[in-house]
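User: ok so my PI wants both of these folded by tonight, can you help

Assistant: No problem, let's get them done. Here's the first:
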Amino acid sequence: MKTHFVKLGTFVLILTSFISCKDNKQEIVEKRITKIESYVDSLKTLKIEQIGPNWDNIDAAFEKQSSELDSLTNGLPDDKKVEFKGRLNDVMSKYFDIKAIVIKDTVVIEKPVVVKGTNQKLRDRFFGAGVIGEDMNFTWVNKNNILSVYEKFFEAYKANKSLFSREDFDEVKLMYEGLDSRKNTVEKEGLTSEDNGKIASLKLKFATMFKINRIGAKSAENQEAKK
């Protein structure tokens, strides 16, 4: 286990390692994003028992470096900004998939999650197994991942809406309100106008679709009750 901790410590150092001041901004971004890509790929090769005990350090290092990288890319020419933003979004998506697994397994080990009926199944379907419980805690959502969370939420909704009962729609509404409440906080923590605009577009699409689908579900249940 000692070897594992040393290896994990090395990963953290990879993220925080010094880069020459002689490099221009584009070179700095290229080097740092390449390192963070290698870092996440390395994490994927480890078992949960190796990652879990050192997760706080791993998460803090990733959060710091991804946030700094996001800020650095804003000063690049448009073509390079798009390129590096795309690479950063890809690596963040991979990282948050790993994080969801770590959170789930850590919760299971330290404090078992009691699954109660279909509500937990719905939460798992929208956010990943065990990521959101009855407390509707969205503190893991931040300015770097909130757009992808909204995107996954909307895609999960579209894929499953035909299966929802009226009670399911009520639960979806609660989850959506919880995510929206978190967004109000994230906006004050540096959410970019670009991501905010994309989220606004998703919210409009979802609100329109949800209203129609929910009315349809109520009508269908009323018709079924009359039979």
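One down. Here's the second:
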Amino acid sequence: MANGERIQNVANINGQWGRADYDVRNRLALDSVWEIPTPFRSGFLKQVLGNWRLSNAAIFQSGLPFTVYTSASYPSGDYNADGYNYDQPNTPTFGNSISASRSDFLNGVFNKSDFPVTAKGQQGNLGRNTFEGPGLANVNTNAIKAIHIPWSIGHEGATLEVRGEIANLFNRVNLTAPTSDLSSALFGKSTGQRQTRTVQLGMRIAF
């Protein structure tokens, strides 16, 4: 939203204190490159099975923070009646954080009734980016085969690279953050996912 609508009260900057939108508390990244060996020193099998390189990149991380708010107008929303329909409710009885599984995010991690409505003309005390969305687990891999071409242009020849890339190798469903607008019928549910498994094949010649 624009024009400072995400700010409840510009005169109370401390009231906006919270986690950055990109704050990931836990993250593990792994990279590997493997030159696949072949027992064949010459001949057709060496040409087919030799000179393969396998690369992998894996990321495992906790979720991104999100804010529970309402976009409804006064009096069902806009609790402080300042004309901007972006206000947070009061903190629920279970606090300003919650532990949830992927199935919880699919079915609804919390209900509208969990969040107390503030007194008319008052701002909610829940705060910004207090909850954390679903985590991410993703593995990308690519295989490259290098083939020397001695008869190409130039004294040193050229190299033909045949490559295949797979994003999200295990096709894991990585959910996006749940709908956090109290006025939405989908409130509390994750309705989208990040990149599904994709396969890309290609070739290139390096002189």
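The chain has one domain: 13-206. Residues 13-206 form one domain. Good luck tonight!
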